[in-house]
Model the fold of this input.
Amino acid sequence: QSALTQPASVSGSPGQSITLSCTGTSSDVGSYNFVSWYQQHPDKAPKLIIYDVSKRPSGVSNRFSGSKSGNTASLTISGLQAEDEADYYCSSYTSSSVFGTGTKVTVL
Amino acid sequence: EVQLLQSGGGLVQPGGSLRLSCTASGFTFANYAMSWVRQAPGKGLEWVSAISGSGDNTYYSDSVKGRLTISRDNSKNTVYLQMNSLRAEDTAVYYCAKRSYSQHSSGLDVFDDSWGQGTLVTVSS
Done:
């Protein structure tokens, strides 16, 4: 499986909403609702923030929301805060896991 | 609270071997699959390997198949990654993670819902 494609960087001002994309193929993202998202702060372990395309684990802020259309999944961060500055990775599971290339979110 | 405490790692010469350990607490270890994910310096995440809760089934990425071996000891709540024939391109921070599943009519979604702190493996002469 090839890595899923994500934009290298996205930025926004505090309070704004931003959307990160994650593009796969009809064999992975497009086939099933098996997309998850991870947040990683510098020198920290990744943290699961979305699974099943749009579900949030307990304790994750409702400012994070996920969706999917065709072969592209999206993560929207609303009410952007300084603490949201991090790297974000999508992942898709078919017979194995594949991660996206990652997006660096900068809060201006 | 789920905790995954990693140990092992360090500097090893090309062609050498190393074993990573990950000891779990806060959940019924034998009921969950576990995985290893790595991250080369300045790079993205790469899934490496996974093992079922019983240990009967193992899975590997093509890049490590035949050189890395995942195993677990449910009596010790520990998962291992034995790394042989190491190459410079294996240099990375290695994370262990607890796998969870979500059942759908179309199959299973699999994701890593808790992660260890990571351990650095450096392959260099």
